[in-house]
Amino acid sequence: MMLDIERTLIDRDAIAARVREMGSQIARDLERDLNAEDAGADYGGRVAIIAVMTGALIFTADLVREMPLKLSLELVTVSSYPGSSTMSKGAAMRSVLPKDLRGKHVLIVDDILDSGQTLDLVKRLVQEQSPATVRICVLLRKLVPRVVEVAAEYVGFDIPNEFVVGYGLDFDGYYRNHPEIAVLRQPVSGADA
User: Fold this and answer.
1) Which of 19, 23, 141, 154 is a Cys-bridge partner for 113, taking CB atoms 3.0 to 4.6 Å apart?
2) Is 14 helix (H, G, I), strand (E, B) or coil?
3) 33 classed as catalytic
């Protein structure tokens, strides 16, 4: 039991239902794009999912299982909330982006759209490779002014400006395994986790 959890914002059943809906919608949109290019062609290797680690790990795993398409899955690491910070410190790439995205349909998957800095950085780097399309999918979108305006084509849930954990989201490396989106009691320190 995680005693630092103050309350549940989104329960596991709501998350599961929404992830199924999103996976189906994304798969339909990608199939439409692929079919519009050249009906009957082999589309193997034309869809690339880029998951922003580590927060999007659980969400991405569940999402791609709802997408009955041939696709590749790539991981990138971007840091924006170092240590026990609850405020973004700006986005910095911590890994290398895949180099074979030209002409592909790319879906960038992240856990949360907050300041916009992480997704702006990843999207700009992806676009430099001339993909066929680039879309963004987030589990959560905070209803806050952004440092950088970034549009997400697929959004699981809009949430208020609260620091949340669970279903992949963490505080100081903890709580990623909590199965629901939850708000922590304040103050919380990494030593208490």
Assistant:
1) 141
2) helix
3) no
